Amino acid sequence: MQPRISLRSRIAGTMLALVAAAGVLFGLWTHVSDDRMENALTRELLVAELDHYEDELAVRPGAVPLSSANLRIYGPSQSHELPTKLTGLGPGEYRPITIGNKLYHVLIRDGSYGRMVITYDVTLHERQEKIAVMIMVLGLGALLIMTAWAAFGVSNRLVGPVHELAHRLAQIEPGKHHRRIAGEFDGTELEPIARSVDTMLERLEGFIAREQSFTETASHELRTPLAVVQGAVELVAEQTRSQPNTQKAVGRIQRAVREMTEFIEALLVLSREDRLPDPGDGSCDVPTLLARVVDDLQSIASDRRISLDVEPGARLRIAAPDSVLTMIVSNLLRNAIQHGKGERIECRLRGRTLAVVSDGEVAPAFRERLFERRFTTRNDGHGIGLYIAHKICLRYGWSIDLASECGRTTASVTF
């Protein structure tokens, strides 16, 4: 991809091209007009001199033709004096013809007194014309230099406020509320744009405030009943220790409550856009958490076999709450359980990369959209699991990828 030309260069280049084109066209027009006018005047002079000489011959048959430093007429009686270059030419107008070290404008005419040849020395004129052309070229070059200087100056003044506006917009951070820029561009052409940006910022701040208020309120309202359920389930579990069938159902309720709690905490992390992830927010032991999540999901996916492959002695801790990683791993494994074709699902941890591998391939048309919100390949899916995992990875600076080839699909996260 070719580098994009800046707006400043495009404005200056356009002005320079217009002036250069205008200068060249004006110079050509001036040169052509002057040359045509000069040739027309010279031809009129030569025709008038020949007519005058023929009139003299009518009165005085032996009249001597005109002969001066610049103008000379050759009549029939002077044909032996005619320069060699002119002897083979027929009637007509010729310019310029070099004879010796001089240039001549020549007119040859056959009249009632025979062939008449008149020559006019235009050497000085041709030299002056070359000097004029050189001066014109130098003047055009100087004009282009001045135009370039002025064009870049004007473009700087035109584009400068745009760059300043872009700089001000780049300094606006989501966490800094009530930042406005319209006052800095009062009286300029960019004032309407700056005021529109301020209006948009006000609407965005209002939207963010409402969303954060809703998230915080919803999480508070959900945590209370979840805490009640958790307490009640623990009480039931204590009272039914001797009943294996009941214990199994209670265990599923406990896992569901824990998953719901972790889901709420993960959504709260995503809603905090006012600051970057802080290592103090939590430190998660990845191998330990993987074992717990795999065990939980294995209990509800009895028709699949989920294997956990962690390098012996592997120790990996990441600066994030357990709920965040639980959300990512759970979504990747659930996606493999729902969409995988085989019975085996592998969960591998190598270095700082976690991979979930399942049988079956994802159609190429779907691969680019898997991380989009509400995109799903199943009618009974909601299309939000991979989207949440992708958003969490973006939030924490991790990379997430999905590859599908050779009959297998691999979803990987690199911390």
Notes on the protein architecture:
- The protein has 415 residues and is α+β, with helices and mostly antiparallel strands.
- The protein folds into 3 domains: 141 residues, no CATH class; 61 residues; 136 residues, Heat Shock Protein 90 (2-Layer Sandwich), CATH 3.30.565.
- The chain has 9 helices and 11 strands.
- Helix 7 runs antiparallel to helix 9.
In short:
With 415 residues, this protein is an alpha+beta fold.
* Adjacency order of strands in the biggest sheet: 6-8-9-11-10
Characterize the biggest β-sheet: 5 strands, mixed
Shape: rod-shaped
Percent of residues in beta strands? 15-25%
Question: How many DSSP E strands?
Answer: 11
| Share of helical residues | 55-70%
Indicate the mean pLDDT.
79
Instruction: List unreliable stretches of 5+ residues.
Output: none
Number of helices: 9
End-to-end Cα distance, whole Å, is 31 Å
How many discrete structural domains? 3
Structural class: alpha+beta
Structural Rg: 46 Å
The helix-strand sequence is HEHEEEHHHEHEEHEEHHEE
